[in-house]
TrEMBL record:
It comes from Shewanella corallii. Pfam families: DMP19. Residues 76-185 form the DNA mimic protein DMP19 C-terminal domain. This is DMP19 family protein. The lineage of its organism: Bacteria, Pseudomonadati, Pseudomonadota, Gammaproteobacteria, Alteromonadales. It comes from the Bacteria. Gene3D superfamilies: 1.20.1420.60.
Length: 199
C-alpha cells in the first residue's frame, strides 16, 4: 500500500507519483482550480446527502460494484449502462480535479462511451467542452485507452492551463447534466421508481 504525502500548497493527501510529477502539489493546485474547490465541496456535499436516500445512488453503487468486483468488469454492462457509467465518471472526475484529472485517471479509458453518452443525453455544452479538451490534449486523435499515453499527453507544456479554462466553463453545468442522467436512467429502465420526481 502506498503512503500518501501532503500537498505543499493545500495539505490534501496525494500519491507520491502525483507529487513527483507536479513538484509536490495536488492536481487541483497544479491546475489552478483550488479557487473552485468550494463549488466542488458543495457538489460532494449534495452527493453525500443523496447517498442513502436516492435510488439513483443505489443503482450507481451497483454499477460500480459490477465494474470493479465482477469478472466481466466494464464489459459486463449493457450499452445503456456503459453510457450512464461513463458520463457519471466523466462528470465526477471533472468536478473533482478537472479534465486533466479525468484524462489522467482510469475513467479516461471509457472516453469514447462518455462522448457518445453526452451526445445521446443532448448535453451539448458538456459535449462541446469535452471535444475541446480532447483536442487540446490529443489533437485530432481519439482519447487513447492506454492510461500512460493519456498521462504523457496531458503533461505537455500548456495543456494544464488550457484545460483549466474549460474546467471553469464545465462547472457552470449549463446542460443540467445530473437531471439528464437521471432522466436517461428512467427512460431506459435502469432505475425504476414511480415515486421519483426530477427537479
Amino acid at each position: 500500500m502506498t503512503n500518501k504525502v501532503p500537498c505543499k500548497e493545500c495539505g490534501v493527501q496525494i500519491l507520491p507519483e502525483t507529487a513527483g510529477k507536479t513538484g509536490g502539489i495536488c492536481m487541483a493546485c497544479k491546475n489552478g482550480i483550488r479557487a473552485n474547490l468550494e463549488q466542488a465541496k458543495a457538489y460532494y456535499q449534495r452527493e453525500r446527502e443523496l447517498e442513502n436516500s436516492c435510488p439513483f445512488r443505489s443503482y450507481w453503487r451497483d454499477l460500480v460494484s459490477r465494474v470493479f468486483d465482477s469478472q466481466g468488469g466494464f464489459e459486463s454492462l449493457n450499452d445503456n449502462e456503459k453510457l450512464y457509467y461513463s458520463v457519471n465518471c466523466l462528470n465526477s472526475e471533472i468536478h473533482n480535479g478537472g479534465f486533466a484529472q479525468y484524462f489522467d485517471n482510469s475513467a479516461g479509458e471509457h472516453a469514447a462511451y462518455a462522448e457518445i453518452g453526452l451526445a445521446t443525453l443532448g448535453a451539448n455544452d458538456a459535449l462541446r467542452l469535452f471535444r475541446e479538451a480532447r483536442y487540446i490534449a490529443f489533437g485530432d486523435a481519439e482519447v487513447p485507452v492506454d492510461r500512460l499515453v493519456r498521462m504523457k499527453a496531458v503533461e505537455r507544456e500548456g495543456v494544464f492551463t488550457a484545460l483549466d479554462k474549460l474546467d471553469d466553463e464545465y462547472y457552470k453545468d449549463l446542460d443540467n447534466l445530473g437531471n439528464k442522467l437521471e432522466q436517461f436512467a428512467l427512460d431506459k429502465g435502469l432505475v425504476c421508481n414511480a415515486n421519483i420526481r426530477l427537479k
